[in-house]
Every structure is written in C-alpha cells, then in structure tokens.
Design a protein that fits this description.
76% of the residues lie in helices and 0% in strands. It is mainly α. It has one domain.
C-alpha cells in the first residue's frame, strides 16, 4: 500500500476520533446550542470525507471495505459546499449511528496495511 493511502486512512480515523472526543458527555441539546462544537464536528467530518475521497482516486477498491463510504464522501460535499445548511439533527444522527462503523472499518484497514501499526 502506498504511504499516501495509509496517511489518508489515519486522517479519516483521527478526524472521526476527534468527533467522538468533542461530543463525549454531550447531548443533542448541548450540540444544537453550541455553534463552536457544531463547527468543530462539521470540520472533522469534512476531513474524514476528503480523506476517503482521496483514497477513492488512488485505491477505489479499498473503499469497498468501508461501510457507507459513498455517503461519507457525499456528506463531506454537502458540508463543504453549504447546500442550504445542514440540519443539526442529521449531523447528530450520523454521530450516533454511523461514526463507530467508520472508526472500526478504518482501524481494520490500518491494522492490515501498516507494518508499524
């Protein structure tokens, strides 16, 4: 595996783990009242989505091992291009329902492909 692909995997994992840290102990009400928290979470989702998008260009077959990779990349595009804003409820739902899958899938790919890790 090319070092650049591995770097993108680490970027996606680190961004997803940062989101987990940001929202630890928080409720949806906390999230919707805190624009700084919202901005941080959205930025990390952008980074994770862009990392997967870059993997898609260089090693698209690898993305088959990441659940919902198409949705993650699409969500990144929505966030970046600001298509009429994004619902806090949607972001929170993704955190609750999908974030752990991304972390798990990327961690497995790193474990299987990083000679050091």
């Amino acid at each position: 595996m090319k070092d650049e692909i591995l770097k993108h995997l680490y970027d996606a994992k680190d961004a997803a783990l940062a989101i987990k840290r940001f929202v630890e102990g928080k409720t949806f009400d906390d999230y919707k009242k805190n624009s700084l928290l919202q901005s941080g979470v959205e930025r990390k989702f952008e980074i994770a989505g862009e990392a997967l998008n870059r993997i898609k260009r260089d090693a698209p077959e690898m993305l088959d091992q990441i659940r919902e990779h198409r949705s993650i990349i699409s969500f990144r595009n929505i966030l970046v291009h600001g298509y009429n804003g994004i619902s806090n409820r949607i972001v929170w739902g993704i955190i609750e329902e999908d974030l752990d899958n991304l972390i798990e899938d990327v961690a497995i790919l790193i474990k299987d492909n990083d000679p050091i890790g």
